[in-house]
Amino acid sequence: MSKNNSTRFVSRLTRDTLALILAGGRGSRLKQLTNWRAKPAVPFGGKFRIIDFPLSNCVNSGIRRVGILTQYKAHSLIRHIQQGWGFMRGELGEFVELLPASQRTAQGWYAGTADAVYQNIDILRNHGAEYVLILAGDHIYKMDYGDMLAEHVAQNADMTIGCIEVPLDQAKAFGVMSVDVNRRIVAFNEKPENPQPVPGRDDVALASMGIYIFNAGFLYEQLIKDADSSKSSHDFGHDIIPSLIKNYKVVAFPYKDVQGNDPGYWRDVGTIDAFWSANLELIGVTPELNLYDDEWPIWTHQAQLPPAKFVFDDDDRRGMAVDSMVSGGCIISGSTVRHSVLFSNVQVHSFSVVEDCVVLPDVTINRHCRLKKVVIDKGCVIPEGTVIGEDPATDAKRFEVSPSGVVLVTPEMLGQSYRYVR
Q1: Which residue in 90, 219, 247, 304 has the most C-beta neighbors within 10 A?
Q2: Are 129 and 263 members of one domain?
Q3: Would you say 397 is a known binding-site residue?
Q4: Nearest-5° angle of CA 99, CA 105, CA 111?
Q5: What is the three-class DSSP state of 240?
Q6: 121 to each of 178, 189, 214, 224, 408, how far by Cα in Å?
Q7: Does 191 belong to an annotated binding site?
Q8: How far apart are the first and last CA of the chain?
Q9: Taxonomically, which superkingdom (predicted)?
Q10: In terms of domains, do 278 and 396 share one?
């Protein structure tokens, strides 16, 4: 059933759906970027945070009952949700609520993704949803979950898993599945050492996106069963899904973005290289991820800031930015910014050059600096005359250098204490 012919059907389904966003992970492959914040709270795209993307997908899909499961260093994530996502109307049954690990069962901390949901099962039941949509809180994409819900119902499935083809050499980081001609999943392996390619192809595998739809009653039954198993690691990918595929109907839903592209834009920004690359992709003339889409906006919290400003126009001291994204509150004073993303409240002082950089909020770059291929964490003050990105051996003595040569700089690496909420 096409989206155009099923608007009312999809709307009813989304109204009867509760979304849960798993946002408790650290994301250790992002190195020091997640020393003080959970991965979903990492800034992305000039003014957003990663979790804004699945949250915006929910709201834009018509799913307005959302729980966010938090655990690792959640303060900045909680603060962001409180400041930016309080516009839901409680009197209409809408909410974005935080579900931190709170020792609701004997386990204490969330032991795995399935355990995180199980520990809140009493809360979930009270909401009375017919379907439960479970999402990872750390991926960048735009998706109408209503289409997936409609397919879940049409297939009479017990569980539906969003999937996407990924290069075979990257598939070991995902749950890899095999499907029959009706897209029913017949095999599932979480992060296999030797992923199986898609039949007829030797270069791609079919990977789980961490997007699951369950019939609510069925989910609760399976969570209770899993919680009673002493042999389980209480994880959806390792335990729940493999236990279901033989006896229940578990189907795969091929991902399409909101423009109908198959496959659509989807990024796991789980490494410094991936984070840097995904941010700089946004600078392109027609990037795959369109942040200027009025029909599918990305919602977020943003401070009330003045416009970006560029000052001085002398031959040796010109404030300018080329092929870049520059957010509110930024001041480019007599310096050149080229092919870079500047988040809010970044100040670049005179005679500096910033190229191929991702500069997070509240950063000050002092005079006579040369920075190339650098990710600068929130709140850094770059000393006058600093050169980063020209000598990898020298950079590695002070900073984190990625396999592709991206340099990560944090306040601690500069001997500074961060003075803002992260």
Answers
A1: 219
A2: yes
A3: no
A4: 70
A5: helix
A6: 30, 26, 14, 9, 40
A7: yes
A8: 44
A9: Bacteria
A10: no
* Element (DSSP H or E) covering residue 65: strand 65-70
For residue 419, pLDDT over 70 is answered with no
Count Cβ atoms below 10 Å from residue 219 Cβ, excluding itself: 25
Helices (H), 180-269: 216-227, 241-244
208 is an annotated ligand-binding site residue: yes
Q: What is the pLDDT of residue 4?
A: 46
What is 124-180 written as a DSSP string?
A: HHHHT-SEEEEEESSEEE---HHHHHHHHHHTT-SEEEEEEEEEGGGGGGSEEEEE-
Question: Within this chain, do residues 115 and 58 fall inside the same structural domain, yes or no?
Answer: yes
> How many whole angstroms separate alpha carbon 195 and alpha carbon 200?
14
Range of 353's domain? 309-414
Please enumerate in sequence order all residues whose Cβ is within 8 A of that of 202, keeping only pairs 6 or more positions apart, or say none: 168
The answer on 336 and 269 residing in a single domain is no
Mean pLDDT of the chain: 92
pTM exceeds cut of 0.90: yes
How many domains, in total, are found in the chain? Answer: 2
Cα gap 3→148, rounded to integer Å: 10
**Domain shared by 315 and 276, yes or no:** no
Paired tokens of 75: 């303060």
Q: Is 175 annotated as a binding residue?
A: yes
pLDDT at position 8 over 60: no
Look up residue 34 and give its DSSP letter: G
Burial readout 64-87 (b: 16 or more C-beta within 10 A, e: otherwise):
bbbbbbbbbbbebbbebbeebbee
**Cα(124)–Cα(119) distance, integer angstroms:** 10
What percentage of the chain's residues is helix, strand, coil (to nearest 5)?
A: 25, 25, 45
- As a whole number of angstroms, the distance between CA 307 and CA 33 comes to 27
